[in-house]
Specification:
Length: 146
């Protein structure tokens, strides 16, 4: 009986040791961004603010960005649709349209992917300086003057 318990303990220990070595996250794709947030600072109203979030597939399998969605219609993301090979780099481009959006802004871009990490959220922020208001000249109607 004692030998049976020792054999069971040995088998359990070897199984647990192998389970720790076989980490599925290290075998698949790993999405590694250089940074997750970008501050544009102050931009002029009407300008397009563009930033590329660079990333690397640090894993051992191809990385696929299944979808990339912005938190509002004023931000348009662009991303590679083809698989990213292990060790390769690419970028998610964020284009913020500041037309008629004066004031502070903070927008989020959700990157859905095939990693075990799950969704990754990128953030852009800044301040839109309003266009100066041009004075309106008075309207004069000929023949209506006193």
């Amino acid at each position: 009986m004692k030998k049976l318990l020792i054999a069971c303990a040995f088998l359990l220990a070897s199984y647990l040791g192998r389970a720790q070595d076989a980490n599925p996250a290290s075998e698949g794709p790993i999405l590694t961004f250089e940074k997750l947030e970008h501050n544009f600072g102050i931009i002029k109203e009407g300008d397009l603010a563009v930033y590329e979030f660079k990333f690397t597939n640090s894993g051992k399998m191809p990385l696929v960005l299944t979808s990339v969605n912005a938190s509002c219609g004023c931000t348009a993301p662009e991303w590679p649709k083809e698989p990213i090979a292990p060790g390769s780099t690419a970028a998610v481009k964020a284009v913020f349209n500041s037309y008629q959006r004066p004031g502070n802004f903070e927008k989020f871009i959700t990157v859905k992917n095939n990693t075990l990490q799950g969704d990754i959220v990128l953030r852009i922020k800044g301040e839109v300086k309003p266009k100066p208001v041009e004075p309106v000249s008075p309207v004069r109607n000929p023949g209506m003057e006193n």
